[in-house]
Amino acid sequence: MSTQANVALVQEGYAAFGSGDMQTFLGLMTPDVVWEFHASTGLPWAGTFTGPDGVARFFAALLEQSEPEAFEPLQYVASDDRVVVLGRERFRVRATGRSWDCEWAHAFVVRDGKIAAFREYTDTAAMTQALAKG
Fold first, then answer.
1. What radius of gyration, in Å, describes the C-alpha atoms of the chain?
2. What average pLDDT score do residues 85-105 get?
3. Which of 6, 58, 62, 69 has minimal CB crowding within 10 Å?
């Protein structure tokens, strides 16, 4: 696929996630997709998840604990099979009512017209603080 087609695929993924269409979103991934979100053990959605079912578990944990108030992909940078997206988000934690507001970078690898890998880089300390009770 061309670099432009890879960017369009990632944009399609954000659109599906934004509209709550998880079936379409997960359908854009390879059967062996590797989804990485590294953080402290204080974040229930931290870890490495494999396959669309693993990605679904990641989002189930994230959305069980929090709800998005704003989520904005702002810039796409791509080369060959790599797409990096810079953006920002604000989520409210259900249990505490606190929010985190941070910028992020999402790094995707595209293989054969599907998302094959993802890794997020963000302010996990802000998330941990918003989750903390007391």
1. 15
2. 97
3. 69
**Which tens digit of pLDDT belongs to each residue from 115-124?**
999 999 999 9
Please enumerate, as own/partner, the contacts of 99-106 that have beta carbons within 8 Å and a separation of 24 or more: 99/69, 99/130, 100/126, 100/127, 100/129, 100/130, 101/70, 101/126, 102/126, 102/127, 106/73
**Residue 52 in tokens:** 């669309």
Q: What is the pTM of this model?
A: 0.94
* Domain count for the chain: 1
Average pLDDT over all residues of the chain? 95
- Burial class (CB within 10 angstroms; exposed 0-12, middle 13-18, buried 19+) of 95: exposed
Instruction: Residue 124: give its domain's CATH number.
Output: 3.10.450.50
